[in-house]
Design a protein that fits this description.
Length: 478
């Protein structure tokens, strides 16, 4: 199965098509063929629009032959997370309430990708309304981990992560509130980039002034994720967080000189409960990469109150988005949505004020932290992927979880700060699924994070312990 067009990186596919050495039609058919072979086992790609995609691939091929100006994503098949609206293509949010919903138009981020030449092939699976990191819903069912189909793939961008890992699609969209880009990337051996709020504007955030939810790119490697991001970034007045476009994000990233950088390493950010297997694997990885940096210091940022702050702010977002459904159609909602809404209803104005004050203090603490360090690394997840039948781990390292999403604390702690963070693979953890580093940069330092991640990725590629692992595609298609 190896050696097919769909296995090539998105950047290489775009180069080959631009040079007329590969056809958008051929690339699309290779992806469709791979989906047909492995998706029945994995259930990552849901609604599809193959005939429209074929028409668009033929149109892209004609533009290339004529020598027309080409978009940065020209001819690249794209998977769109099923939380993003897509014109004429079923968009369900994984909910029975919207199981037959077909949007009349693309949301702006999807439209930007298509304007850059991307060809939407289908939707990628999500948990119901994106709640929780187990990609399973009553509309489409569970998406399985390509390294071990008995385990979860993470979420909420789980379908995108699996589609990438199994080379069904070269680029996929994602979004992230409490780790929804970073967690599935970590469980599936691909790259998920939580950008700074407003870098990829969205018109769909109900509470536009909160910064915890962002749209972002996913790819099999850093350059592929950066390529998709270059089409997603823009200035858009519909998003209060949108700002001027960083021109560095419109260009391919350049590897950082790690020998000039001060690295901070933290196994738990000073507050997260971490499985001993992940902790041990992380210590091993830091030991292997520390010498590449100017200096490496083990230091925890000050995250006091992070759990409480995130729980409250997250619940407010669910109240804004789902209170009407809770009151009118509660019987059609899963337990995660109900729990989020009821958590919000039980909170007082004082709780909300205290949560935002804590978030502000944590942000300022992070600002001070990055005066002494150029980049922070920590594990991307607290636990290895667990059995697909479990909604969430009830305990980690023998300690009970506060909520069904408490095990995502390494991700949502960084969410609170608003700092950019990327999840990149670095070999396997002890249970045989991918191990990942979460690389966190300074406020607004999205280009710097990409640069550091790319340098790490290149350095790790030659080490069999650290290189990106690949799933057994032959076994998945059997």
């Amino acid at each position: 199965m190896s050696g097919e067009l769909c296995d090539l990186p998105a950047v290489e596919l775009r180069r080959l098509m631009g040079a007329r050495q590969a056809s958008p039609v051929e690339v699309l058919e290779s992806c469709i063929s791979r989906i047909a072979r492995v998706n029945p086992r994995l259930n990552a790609v849901t609604a599809t629009c193959y005939e429209r995609a074929r028409e668009e691939a033929r149109a892209s091929e004609a533009r290339i032959r004529r020598g027309d100006a080409l978009g940065v994503l020209e001819g690249l098949p794209l998977g769109v997370k099923d939380l993003n609206e897509t014109e004429g293509l079923r968009t369900t949010w994984g909910s029975p309430i919207l199981k037959d919903h077909v949007p009349a138009r693309d949301e702006r981020m999807v439209a930007a990708c298509r304007a850059a030449g991307a060809i939407v092939v289908g939707k990628t699976n999500v948990p119901e309304f994106g709640a929780g990191a187990n990609t399973n819903n009553p509309v489409y069912g569970p998406t399985r981990n390509p390294f071990d189909t008995a385990r979860i793939c993470g979420g909420s961008s789980g379908g995108s992560a699996v589609a990438l890992a199994a080379s069904m699609l070269p680029i996929c969209t994602g979004s992230d509130t409490g780790g929804s880009l970073r967690t599935p990337a970590a469980f599936c051996g691909v790259v998920g980039f939580r950008v700074s709020p407003g870098t990829v504007p969205t018109e769909r955030r109900a509470l536009g002034w909160t910064n915890i939810s962002v749209q972002g790119p996913m790819g099999r490697d850093v350059c592929d994720a950066a390529l998709l991001l270059s089409a997603q970034v823009r200035s858009d007045g519909a998003d209060p967080h949108a700002r001027g476009v960083d021109p560095d994000l419109l260009r391919p990233p350049v590897p950082a000189d790690l020998s000039r950088l001060r690295l901070a390493a933290s196994a738990d950010l000073g507050f997260a409960i971490v499985d001993p297997r992940i902790r041990a694997a992380f210590h091993d990885r830091v030991g292997r990469i520390a010498g590449w940096f100017r200096e490496c210091a083990w230091r925890d940022p000050d995250m006091e109150g992070a759990d409480e702050a995130f729980e409250v702010i997250r619940a407010q977002n669910f109240l804004a988005g789902h209170l009407e459904n809770y009151r009118a159609r509660r019987h059609l909602l899963g337990p995660n949505i109900v729990a989020n809404v009821e958590q919000g209803l039980a909170q007082s104005a004082a709780d909300v004020a205290r949560a935002h004050a804590r978030q502000t203090r944590i942000f300022r603490s992070f600002q001070d932290f990055f005066l002494d360090h150029d980049v922070l690394v920590c594990p991307a997840v607290t636990v290895p992927p667990f059995e697909i039948e479990r909604l969430y781990p009830e305990e980690v390292d023998g300690k009970p979880m506060r909520t069904y999403f408490h095990w995502l604390s390494l991700a949502y702690g960084v969410t609170l700060t608003g700092h950019p963070a990327i999840s990149i693979p670095c070999g396997l953890e002890p249970t045989g699924t991918p191990m990942h580093l979460q690389v966190v940069g300074p406020h607004g330092g999205d280009a710097k994070v990409l640069s550091v991640a790319l340098a790490l990725e290149k350095a790790m590629a030659s080490d069999p312990v650290l290189a990106r692992p690949l799933p057994d595609l032959a076994a998945l298609s059997a």
